[in-house]
Amino acid sequence: MESAFLEQENFNFDYIDYYILLKPLYDENDYSYIIDCETYLTYFQNDGINADQWLTAMTTLTSSYTKETLNELLTTQLNDGTHIVYAPDEVTCLVDDTHYIGQYEANDLILCQDISRVRYTMYLRKDVYNALKDMYDEICTFNNNFLLRECYISYDSLDEDAGYNEFQLGLCINVGELGVSSDDFAQTELSLWLEDNAYKYGFILRSPKQKASVTNHSYDSHIYRYVGVEAATYMYENNLTLEEYLGSY
Question: What stretches of 15-110 show up as alpha helix (H) in DSSP?
Fold first, then answer.
């Protein structure tokens, strides 16, 4: 920090607390966090965040994003009504057409080993994988045809919805059953079991029946989202979607 003060004319002592948060994201002799800090604080101001909340906002962002992903997040021109997601590491965060995570990538992704899947290199966040593995082991006591069809998808692998797709979080799974078509899966014993029991492992059916007006997605029996056991149980018992759950707080 001393060398930054000596070498950067625009060093601002009033921003020391912000510099301390940003500096670990940068290389040792990279002082561009001084300029970036000005940009980010201007973003907070334009986003309607009170000055007394700026430190909390910066703390949250720097714990989830890297130097590159944070810069992209706070410098991308978004459509009116679209907001950035400040805490994508939270398991109940909302990502959709109006909630943007940019190039965010979770730092605890692990391989989905010992689970039947469509390809070898499939990843989930560590806690999500452990929960899925427990649920998978239970499923295997009555059905050996469970198939993980999709999970984490990187920003670079997405097309038009990159930055707005919750599969980037490493919290979503797309599941099916060997020998069963996508159209027929909803009627299977496995699908019905998941709808009634997945919450015990922290998963919710992301787009349930008769909730399209809330989720903006028609019913889909394949896609589950990890939100943690406590939140999933509450949503299941009260017939709530993630959107409704978040709106109740």
Answer: 16-22, 33-46, 54-64, 67-75
Q: What is the DSSP letter of 177?
A: E
Cα–Cα distance, 31 to 4 (Å, whole number): 6
Helix (H, G, I), strand (E, B) or coil at 34: helix
Contact between residue 152 and residue 121 where contact means Cβ atoms under 8 Å apart: no
Rounded CA separation 24/40 (Å): 16
CA separation for the pair 199, 232 (Å, rounded) = 5
Count other C-beta atoms under 10 Å from residue 203's C-beta: 26
Nearest to 132 by CA among 234, 237, 230, 225: 225
Sign, CA dihedral 115-90-165-157, equals negative
In the DSSP assignment, the letter for residue 167 is: G
Distance between CA atoms of residues 148 and 173, nearest Å: 7
How would you classify the pairing of strands 83-84 and 99-100? parallel
- Is 226 strand, coil or helix? strand
Tell which residue, 25, 163, 198, has the closest CA to residue 88: 163
Residue-wise pLDDT tens digits, 98-131: 999 999 999 999 999 999 999 999 999 999 999 9
213 phi and psi angles, rounded to 5 deg: -70, -20
Record the pTM: 0.92
Query: For the chain, what's the residue count?
Result: 249
- The alpha-carbon radius of gyration of the chain (Å, integer) is 21
Query: Which percentage of the chain shows pLDDT scores above 90?
Result: 92
**pLDDT number for residue 73:** 97
